[in-house]
Amino acid sequence: MNYVHGLCDRLFFPVIGILLIFLLVPGVAAGSGETIGGNVSPELQASSGGDNWIASLWSGIFGIFGAQVEEMPAEPEEALLTPEDPLSPEADPVQTDGEDDSSSKTADLAVLSEPSGALISLDGEYTGRTTPATFSALSSGIHTVSLSPDGSSARFDKPLSLSGEQTLTVDLSAGSHTLSEGLVEIETYDGTGSIFVDSKPDGATIVIDGKTLQWKTPHVVSGIKPGVHTVSVKNGWVDFSVSTKKCLVESGLVTGVVFNQEQCYPRSVTLKSERFDKAEVSVNGKRLDQKIPATVEISGVSSFVSVRDDGGYYSFLVSDFIDGGAEYVLGDPAPATASVRVTSSPAGAGISVDGFDTGYATPYTIEHLSDGPHLISVSSPGYISTEQRVLLTDDLTPLEDAALSFVLESYPYGSLTITSKSEGAMIYLHGKDTGEVTPHTFRYMRIGTYDLKVIFGGTSQTRDDVTVLPDRDTVCRFDL
């Protein structure tokens, strides 16, 4: 009996504790679904009820004996990255305000050389430009700049760090260079030009703007004011079908005018076009500073007129049977999808299409030409310009639809500097106003003797014995 009594004493408290646990567990379990300010969804309760019941049971048992059990915090779920998330590897990084994106920076570079006329390559690719030239909107960073005086081998070839506005000056003879901050403005030559007058047969006397000159064909007449001029030839025993032509002289360039005995039938035609209204037009590749609508002189067979716009160079054949005084309307042109590869010896000659300067120099492929006839010409200071007519048809197979090669003929030249005691005196050459005033240097002047006149304040002085020598600068001073 004592044994039973002792056993009851030993089991009393555990049994009472177990009963109390079972009484307390439902309340604890129910409380696990309560939150402050709201209820947990039944789905959440169902999913977590079992775990909470066991946790509550153990808490109750250990609580009877004065112990406490801390619940382990649930391990946070791994966040999923979405393409919209800025940290997602599939999304481009978002640039915050004020963040510097160096990839968007550009650089402007002016390239000058001594002597000028060197071919410019960037990162191993010829740009079609010669010094001096300016390049805009280059990507900032390292670029390799190469200069070649003759197009055969690079005399200067160095990687440069470009950013902002900079000027590269290279002395090709000394092999030195400087890269300075700031963009030097390229000075374009805006002086006089020249006319190369030729005839078949040669030996004809040259007349320019009604002034008979002492030279005979073929000859380069230098010191001509830019603009439209009238050129004539006279030969006592030769009858030229056309003995007078007009030409457009441009600064620093040599314009060619050729006379021959071929029969041609000049006629006046009025050009009109809705699309090319106000656009400059050339006839057989020769510009005369005329804009549509315009009345032009058409001569010869298979004549054509050309215009240029942002889309390219367009040519239009003019019927050989069109009557003089007729009206010719330029319709929709053929697509400007043809191209022509132009090379020359020496390299670096400026390329013109139908009389329009392309801005590129040989060797280069000129694109955006329409099908049909075009006149391709090349020119370079100190050389006689040359030209060739080509009939283009767009061929999608080759890289270019035609290839032309020119050999430029040089002429002996020097410089002529004219000064006066009073600056600003008007300068006359060949009896014509050059548009220049003292002091001024005429470059690429054909060697020979010139007659000069300067006028200042109603007073003039003349000289007719000024001789230009090859590769020298002849200086003529007036006391005016």
Low-confidence stretches: 25-51, 53-58, 61-103
Number of DSSP strands? 40
Task: Kindly report the average pLDDT value.
Answer: 82
Strand content: over 45%
Which sheet architecture does the biggest sheet show?
Answer: 4 strands, mixed
Class by SSE composition: mainly beta
Task: Give the fraction of residues assigned to helices.
Answer: 10-25%
The order of strands across the largest sheet is 6-3-9-10
**Spatial shape:** globular
What's the Cα radius of gyration? 44 Å
- Cα(first) to Cα(last) distance is 155 Å
Helical element count?
2
Written description of the protein model:
The chain is mainly beta. 11% of the residues lie in helices and 50% in strands. The strands form twelve sheets. It has a four-stranded mixed β-sheet, with no helix packed on it. A four-stranded antiparallel β-sheet has the order 5-4-7-8, with no helix packed on it. A hairpin with a 2-residue loop joins strand 38 (448-456) and strand 39 (459-468). The longest helix is centred in the first third of the chain and has 30 residues, at 2-31.
